Protein 1
Amino acid sequence: MNEEVKTAHSALIAEIRKLQKEDGLTLSQITRESGIAKSTVSQFLSGQYGGNNEKIAEQAQKWLDTYKARHQLNGKLRTEPEFILLPSSKQWVQLFEYAQMAGDIGVITGAPGTSKTVTAEYYCKTNSNAWMVTASSSLRSPRALLEEIAEIVDSPVKSGSGVMRGLIKRLRNTGGLLIIDEAQHLSTESLDQLRGLNDQAGIGLAWIGNEPLRGRIEGMGQSKSNAQIFSRVGMWKARTKPLKTDLEQLKDAWGVTNPELDKLLFWIGSREGGLRELSKTLRFAYFIAGSEGRTELQASDIEAGWTQRKSSSLPNSLHRH
C-alpha cells in the first residue's frame, strides 16, 4: 500500500472515529448500515485489518457518504410533534376510560385521520393493563384473533384449543381494557368471541373502525342470533372529520403562526385522512422551506407539500392571488 493510499485511509478512519464520538455511533450500527462485518470494521478502524484494505475503504467511504447525506436531509426535516391530546382525542380517551372502568364495550367509528389510532396507542402507553390489537384480513377467524391477543397480553396459553381458557385466566380480575383497531376486518364470529371474553374475563373492550362498522353492529340488533353483540355495547362515539379545534391545535403544534395559511391548511385537514394528511403536508412543506434556508412557511410551500405528495392540484379558490 503506497503512502498516498495510507494517508487517504487514515483520513477516512479519522472521520469515522470523529462521527463515532460526536454522534454516538456504535460498531454494530456501522456494520448494519454498511454491510461490513463487525470484526472487519473494528480491525479497519484500528489499522490492523490484514485483508483487502482498499475494498473495505471503498465500502466504508460509500457508507460514510450515505450517512452524511442522510443526516443533511434529516436536518431539513422538522420533527413531528409529540402526541397531542386534541379535542377529538379527549372523546376517544373518555370512551376508553369508561370501557375499562365499567368492564363494558365501547365502539369508536369514523373517517381516517381523526386521531383514533394514535389516541389508542397513547392510552395503552399511559394506562396499566390496556392492550391494543390491530385487526386485519389475516385475523378474521376467531382462532387467529385469540392467538394474536394471547401473544400481546402474554397469556399462559398462546395457541391451540385452550387459548380462550388461557385468556380468561390471564385477564380476569385485571380491570383491563382490550382495544381492537381496524375492527371492521373482524368476522361476526370473532366479534362474538370478543363479546364472550368481555363476559367471562370481565375486561373492557373498545372496537375502533370505519363508519360501516357501526352500521354493521347496529344491524346485528335486528338478528336474534347476533343481538347479544349489539346489546352489549355501552358507549358509541363517532367522528366523520376532524373538528376545527383539532386542526387549529395541530397547526399550532407544528409551529405555524401565519394566519394567511389557515384557509389552505383547514381545507387539507378536512379531506380524507384529515389530521394525518395535514401533518404529512406540513412536514413536506417544512422540508421545502428548509431546503431554501427558511424556517417560516409560505403558501407556496403548503401548495407544493400537497401537490407533490398527492399529484393533484388545489382548488382554484385556494390559490394565492
Protein 2
Amino acid sequence: MTKIFVTGGAGYIGSHVVKLLGQKGYEVMVYDNLSTGNQDSVLYGKLMKGDILDFESIKTAMADFQPDAVMHFAAKIIVPESVAEPLKYYENNVYGAVNVIKAMKECKADKFIFSSTAAVYGEPKEMPLSEDMPLSPVNPYGRSKAMVERVLEDFSKARDFRYVSLRYFNVAGADPEGRIGETKKDATHLITMCVRTACGKRDKMYVYGTDYPTPDGTCIRDYIHVMDLADAHVLALEYLLEGGKGDVFNCGYGQGYSVQQVVDAAKRVTGVGFPVEYAPRRPGDPPELVADSTKIKQKLGWKPKYNDLGFIIKTAWEWEKKIL
C-alpha cells in the first residue's frame, strides 16, 4: 500500500485531502500540532501530534512511517497577521518546510506536494494568472511561500527529488457529504465568515476595502471548492508516483467574483440578511487574483466537479448549521 505522510492533515484543506486519500486506498500518517487543526477531522490513517519546527520529532515520525510521498499543508496563512508578525511566518512557513524536506532526505523520501498560493504573484497587471508569470509577492505570507518554491526548485536540481507546487486561489466550501469542514474558530475565509454570520456565530462581518480598481470597488477572487482542490492533490500525487517531473500548477476555476458578489450570493443561499460593515483596506490584499488553470487540466487531467459559487456556499452553510 502506498504511504503518504501529511503535515497539517488535521486542518481545513489537509483533512479534506486526507479523506480523499483514504477513500482511494492510500495509507496515511497525519502529523499536526493541532494549533488550528481538529483531530476529529482526521477520518483516515493515524494522527501524530507534533510540530514541523521540531526537527527531531518530524524526522522520527517520518523515519518510522517510511512514506512514499509527503504532502505539506502545515503553514500559517493569514495575510494581515503576516504583515504584523512577519518573523512568525518566515519561521513556520520557510524554516518549517525546510525541516520537512530535511526529514525526507534523512529517510530517502523523494516525492513532495507543496501547498502554495496565488499570493506568490503579488499584484499582477494581467488576468488570468498563468504559472509562467513572474513571482512578486506583496506580503510576508506570499513571500514565505515563494521562498519555499525556490527551495524546492534548488533542492530538486541537487538531489533525486521531485515535487509539485499547487498554487491555491481562494479555497472555500465543505465536504458535500457533511463529514468535515472548516473548524478553526478564527477562520478568515470570506465564505466561512458569511455563513457564520448568517448562523449567528458572529454579530456581523466586515468587508475590507471598497475603493479597489474593480467594478464595485471590492476585491475580486477566484473561489475553488475544497474537494476539487483535494482532487488536484491526488492527481499531483499520481503524477509523481508515475515518474512525473517537478512542476507548478494553479488551482482555480478561472472565474472571479468580487467580495460584494460573494456576500450577496451568501445572503441568497442562506436566506439571511446578515449584517455587513464596510471597513478600510487591509494591508497586503491585491485587488484581483484569478487563475488560468489550463495547465493542470491539460497535464494532470483535472476536471472540477463543483465549479458553482452557490454550491460552494451551500456546502459551507450546511456544515456550519451542523456544528451549531
Protein 3
Amino acid sequence: MSIDQQLTRINVMQPWLGEEEVAAVSEVLRSGWVAQGPRVAAFEEAFAASQQAAHAVAVSNCTTALHLALVVAGIGPGDEVVVPSFSFVATANAPTYVGATPVFADVDESTGNLTPATIATVVTPRTRAVIAVDQGGVPLDLRAIRAWCDPRGIVVIEDAACAAGSTSHGRPVGAEAEIAAWSFHPRKLLTTGEGGMLTTSRPEWAARARQLREHAMSVSAADRHASVLAPPESYAEIGFNYRMTDLQAAVGLVQLGRLPEMVARRRALAARYAEVIAGLPGLRMVSDPAWGTTNFQSCWLEVLPEHPLDREELMMHLADAGISARRGIMAAHRQPAHRDRSHVPLPVTERLNDQTLILPLFHQMTDAEQARVCDALLTAWRP
C-alpha cells in the first residue's frame, strides 16, 4: 500500500457522530447526574416506541441483555439453547452464563439466519430456548420460527444486535419478539459507545430485568438518589451491575433520531454495490429477504469458486488499493472456547465463514470512496 493509499484508506465502518451528540453529553455533564437516571428512562421510552416494543430496559451491552433475557425466561442448568454458530461468539457464550448448554444449528445460505428447519434438526427434550440472530442486520423470519417453537414451549430470544432499522413483515425488527437483545456498539448503526437494550412484551420480565441490572435492588438507584430520605433497599436474589449511564443514553437519543437517515443512506449505498456486483460472476451479495428489509449493518458478499480470486486473495487485492474489508461472520464452533462442543454438521455455516467478506459501508461514505471500492472489485476480474 502506498503512502497516499494509507492517507486515504477506506475503513469498513465509521460511526456517524456529530455536534448534536457532543451537546447532549455536555448537557448531562452540566446536570451533575451522569449515572443511570432520567436520560436512560427517556432513551428506553423512545427506543421502545421506535421498535414498537411494549417494554425496553437499557443495559451495558448486548451480551448482558442476552444474559438477562435467559435469566428472566427461566433458562438454567441442564437446559439446552439452540444458537447459530454463524454469529459473534457472544451468542454462544450467553447460555453458558446461566449454566445451560449452547447447541449449534446451521443457517440459511441466503440470509445467514436460523430457520425452523435448521432448528428442528438439533432440538431435543432438553431444548428450552432458541437465540435467533438477525445476522448483519438481515431480518430473520421470526413469525415462522415462533410458529414452530411456541407450541413446543421453546422460548425464542431474538438477538437483534445488528438490526436497529431493519424491518420484518412490515414492522420494525423485534416488534413481534417476546424478548429481544440489542447492541449499541460503534460497529452498529445506532451507537452509544458501548451499551445495549432488552425489549420484551412481558411486563414481569421487564420488571425483573430492571432489578437484576442493578444488583437486584428493591429500590432503584435513581429513586434512592431522588429522595431526601432514601428508603431502605433489600436484595432478594443475586443481581448484576449491567447499568447504562445517562451519558450513553444522551448519545443514544440523538442517534435514534438519526436512524431513519442512516438506514436510507446505507440502503442507497448497498443498491449501488448490488448493481456493480450483479455484473461480476462469482460474487453474491446479501440482499433483502422476502419478508423484510435489511439496514445493511454489514454489507457482506460471498466469493464463489468461479471467481478468479478466493476470499483471502480478494481481501488482499482490496487492501492493496487502500480498502479495508473484513472476513465475514465468524463460526463460533471453530473457536477454541467452543471447539469441543458436539454438533451436527454445519456445512452452510462453514462455507459462509470461509467464503464471505464485509465491504466498507458507512453513512459518511462518499460517492468517490464507493467508486474506488467498485473499481477494485472490477479490476479483480479485469486487471
Protein 4
Amino acid sequence: MVIGTIADQIIRTVEGVSDTVTAPFSEPVIRLGVTGLSRAGKTVFITSLIANLMDRGRMPQLAAAANGNIQTAYLQPQPNDTIPRFNYETHLARLTAPAPSWPDGTRQISELRLSLRVQPRGLIGGFSGPRTVHIDIIDYPGEWLLDLGLLDQTYTAWSAAALSRAAGRPGGDAYIALAQETDPNAKLDEPAAQNLATAFTAHLQAAREAGFSDCSPGRFLLPGDLAGSPVLTFAPLLPGKYPRGTLGREFERRFESYKRNIIRPFFRDHFARIDRQIVLIDVLGAIHAGPAALEDLRSAMARILGAFRPGKNAFLTRIFQGRRVEKILFAATKADHLHHSQHPQLTAITQALLREAKDRADFAGAKTAAMSIAALRTTVEETVDHRDGPLDVVRGRLLENGKQAAFYPGKLPSDPAHLLAPARDGSETWLDADYSIMNFAPAPLTLRPGDGPPHIRLDKAAQFLLGDRL
C-alpha cells in the first residue's frame, strides 16, 4: 500500500514536470478558472464570454479584437476526457431563445476549450504567421473553494467554528439545540447520524437562501453523486474525547475522509493548475440581505482567496513549484441592475470588501483588479420624474411574471466604509438606507451578424485576464 502510494506520487510528479516542460514549446494554453458563490452568474459569464469571443462585435476594449489580431475563434474538444464538458450550446440557446430563460447554475466542475487564431503585430508578426492560443475555461462552484480551508482543521476545531457560525442564522439555533441534545459518546447509530447530517444540511441551505456566503462544507450543498454517502454523513458535535465505536469518533473519521477523498483531489487535479482566475461576486445581493450577510461575504471571500497561490508564472517556477495564479479579477456581477452612474460606487465597495485578500495577492506578485460587470445585460437605463427630482433607474422584464418594471435599488454610498463598518460591528440592519434587488429575466435579443450578446465591461474583463497573451 505504501509502495503503491509512493509510486503514484512519483508518476504524478513526472507527468506534471513533463507538462510544464513541453507547454512553452507548443501552442500556448491559458487555463482560466471561473468561480463564485451560488447565484453569482458563473454559467452566464462563461456562455457570454465564449459567444463574444467568437463574434467580437461588442468587444472594443479587448485590444486583440479591436485591432484585428484575432482572426477566428473555434471550439475544440477539451483536453481532459474525465471532466464534463461545459454545455455551452444549450446555455446559449436558452439565453437567445425567442422567450429566453436563465440556464441552470453550476453544480459540478466542467471545462471547455476555445481556440483563437491570432496574428501577432509588430516586427515579429511580420516574419511569423498566425499562431493558435488555447483558452481552457474551468467552471467550478465557489462553495468548493471554501472547503480548502478545512484542510488545516481538526474535526473538533471545525465543529466549534461551525456551531459558532450557526448561531443566529436560519436553522442554526435549531441545529445547535439538536447537537446539545446529542451525546457524541453514544454508540454509533446510523439513523441518528443521518438525522444530524440532514438537519445540518438543511441549516446550510436555509442560510444560503438568506444571503449568507460561508456555508461549508460545500459538497453538502452540491453533493452530486455523493448524496447519501458516508463521506457526507457527518455534522458538528460538542467537543469531547470520543471513544472508539462512538458517534463522535465516526464523525471525526468521516470528516478526515472528506478532506482526503474530496478536498485534496480537487486541489491537486484542478485548482492547483489554474493560472488566470475570475471570482464573480453578488455584492448587491449581499447588501440587500443586510450587514451580517455582507460581513459573511467579506469573510468567505478572504477564505476563498487565501487558497490561491498567486505569483508570476515563470517557466522555472512552473517546473519546481507548480503553477501560480498570475492574474485575479474580482468582478461584482449584475451591474445592469444599477444605472451606470452608480457603477463606480459598486466597484469601490467590491475593492474595499476584498482589500485584505487583494493586498495578499498583490504582495505575492499577482496582478489583481476589481470591476463591475454584467455578462448579459438585461435592462435599459431611464430617468424618471420623482417627487425629489429626476431619478436614474433601470427597466427590465421581471422574472416572476414577465412584466416590464422600472427599478431603483437605493443610493449606494460613495464611501464603502458606510456599509463595511456596520457590517463588521454586527449591526442587524442598515441605519440610513434600504437596499433592494429585483430578479430580472433575460431580455429577448436581436443580434446582428458578428455581434455577441450585450454586456457591461465583459470586454474589459477579457482584456485584463487574456489580453497580454493575445
